[in-house]
């Protein structure tokens, strides 16, 4: 009998062989729905729910005593979560802290590490970066008296979707003091060569930081060994910590002891914090870059979420992520390539993050048609569909079903029933 390829039965067979398949049971997944938007907001896990309820219970039980009592005392929660996050980014325990939000942390990092001097006054970013990162860079330049129009340099994209290493290198002029780039471009899903960027930049005496929003939890990192100066991220995408969950930051140990640009009480040395002195004594590691009181309730879910990642392991998660996105690309080639889509995500593994991006002039209405049929994609204006299988809870059969539904939508032109405009939340 001839072997069957690209059938639902084949997909079910892949799921039977999946060593991570049991983790799906940890999550609240709607069986009638295919959720492919984990790169925007991950699903709730039972462990995250429990850790949140447990922390609420500690508030109920201890009141203010919860700062020092209970299984996850609040006073050191940010530090303990930082230690648990460190393996995901290839960092030492004291190089990571869970704190603030991604943009607040970025403001802190730029305020701390952007030190213009003489001719080195410019910050290098890229023209495809998420708007919030650019806003923060513009603000920090203005606060130091520089015009962003002149001093914020953006690496240009030749195809409006990806950035080449050569273009990044060419943009590293003698005037650049600091670089901020995304590890994975939020639109196309391109994974940048972080190690090579850092090596080249450091030869030119340039500080390098990365926004890991679209890679942490999907791609293994080695921030310490690569020599990355700083990094920031959110925890609510692949790390499934919930909407508005507390962010995180990394500061390489060679910078420990550098006084933060934005001082805050919780950045104090823990043993000195309640001395109430007006002279700031920073914490020894990344904890020095905390600003305000930890967001305890917004951090609670991460206790459970990180436990799942510890059990699954980033290497295995990355292998499944690449396998599922390969499978999605194969299905696209067989069933969707004649319907006007353009794959803008790099095909090579070393250049690909955790999602596949399809460009189409009718993208907004196609996404609405998909949602109507219980496939949850992500739309990015003006014409991009992002599909993100999350290795912890997405099955191969989910990928197959999503592509078949998308094929039916295109074949029958069902997307024409919807306006080609984005919703309030794309």
Automatic annotation (TrEMBL):
The keyword Transmembrane does not apply. It catalyses: L-kynurenine + H2O = anthranilate + L-alanine + H(+); 3-hydroxy-L-kynurenine + H2O = 3-hydroxyanthranilate + L-alanine + H(+). InterPro entries: Aminotransferase_I/II_large, Kynureninase, PyrdxlP-dep_Trfase, PyrdxlP-dep_Trfase_major, PyrdxlP-dep_Trfase_small. Gene3D superfamilies: Aspartate Aminotransferase, domain 1, Type I PLP-dependent aspartate aminotransferase-like (Major domain). Its EC number is 3.7.1.3. Keywords: Hydrolase, Pyridine nucleotide biosynthesis, Pyridoxal phosphate. Its cofactor is pyridoxal 5'-phosphate. It comes from the Bacteria. Pathway: Cofactor biosynthesis; NAD(+) biosynthesis; quinolinate from L-kynurenine: step 2/3; Amino-acid degradation; L-kynurenine degradation; L-alanine and anthranilate from L-kynurenine: step 1/1. The keyword Hydrolase applies. Pyridoxal 5'-phosphate binds at residues 102-103, 130-133, 211, 214, 236, 265, 293. One of its GO terms (molecular function) is kynureninase activity. Pfam families: Aminotran_1_2, KYNU_C. Residues 78-220 form the Aminotransferase class I/classII large domain. The modification N6-(pyridoxal phosphate)lysine is found at residue 237. HAMAP family: Kynureninase. Catalyzes the cleavage of L-kynurenine (L-Kyn) and L-3-hydroxykynurenine (L-3OHKyn) into anthranilic acid (AA) and 3-hydroxyanthranilic acid (3-OHAA), respectively. Belongs to the kynureninase family. Homodimer. This is Kynureninase. It comes from Jeotgalibacillus marinus.
């Amino acid at each position: 009998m001839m072997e069957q390829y690209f059938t639902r039965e084949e997909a079910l067979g892949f799921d039977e062989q999946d060593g991570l398949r049991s983790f799906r049971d940890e999550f609240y997944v709607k069986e009638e729905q295919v959720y492919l938007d984990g790169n925007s907001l991950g699903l709730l896990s039972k462990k995250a729910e429990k850790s949140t309820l447990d922390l609420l219970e500690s508030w109920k039980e201890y009141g203010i005593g919860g700062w020092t009592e209970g299984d996850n005392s609040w006073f050191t929660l940010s530090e303990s979560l930082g230690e648990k996050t460190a393996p995901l980014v290839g960092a030492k325990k004291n190089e990571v802290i869970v704190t603030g939000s991604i943009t607040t942390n970025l403001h802190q990092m730029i305020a701390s590490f952007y030190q213009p001097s003489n001719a080195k006054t410019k910050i290098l970013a890229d023209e495809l970066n998420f708007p919030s990162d650019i806003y923060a860079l513009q603000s920090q330049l203005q606060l130091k008296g520089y015009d962003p129009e002149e001093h914020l340099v953006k690496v240009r994209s030749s195809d409006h979707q990806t950035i080449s290493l050569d273009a990044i290198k060419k943009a590293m002029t003698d005037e650049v003091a600091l670089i901020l780039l995304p590890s994975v471009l939020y639109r196309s899903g391109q994974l940048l060569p972080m190690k090579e960027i850092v090596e080249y930049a450091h030869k030119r005496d340039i500080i390098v930081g990365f926004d890991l929003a679209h890679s942490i939890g999907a791609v293994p990192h080695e921030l310490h060994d690569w020599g990355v100066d700083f990094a920031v991220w959110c925890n609510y995408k692949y790390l499934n910590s919930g909407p508005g969950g507390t962010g995180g930051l990394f500061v390489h140990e060679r910078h420990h002891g550098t006084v933060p640009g934005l001082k805050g009480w919780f950045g104090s040395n823990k043993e000195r914090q309640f001395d109430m002195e007006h002279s700031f004594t920073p914490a020894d590691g990344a904890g020095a870059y905390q600003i305000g009181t930890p967001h305890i309730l917004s951090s609670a879910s991460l206790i459970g979420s990180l436990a799942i990642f510890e059990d699954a392991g980033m290497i295995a998660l990355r292998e499944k992520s690449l396998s599922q996105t390969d499978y999605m690309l194969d299905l696209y080639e067989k069933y969707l390539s004649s319907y006007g889509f353009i794959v803008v995500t790099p095909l090579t593994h070393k250049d690909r993050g955790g999602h596949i991006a399809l460009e189409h002039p009718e993208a907004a209405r196609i996404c609405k048609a998909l949602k109507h049929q219980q496939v949850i994609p992500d739309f990015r204006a003006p014409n991009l569909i992002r599909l993100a299988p999350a290795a912890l809870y997405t099955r191969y059969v989910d990928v197959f079903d999503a592509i078949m539904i998308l094929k039916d939508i295109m074949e029958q032109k069902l997307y024409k029933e919807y306006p080609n405009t984005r919703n309030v939340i794309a």
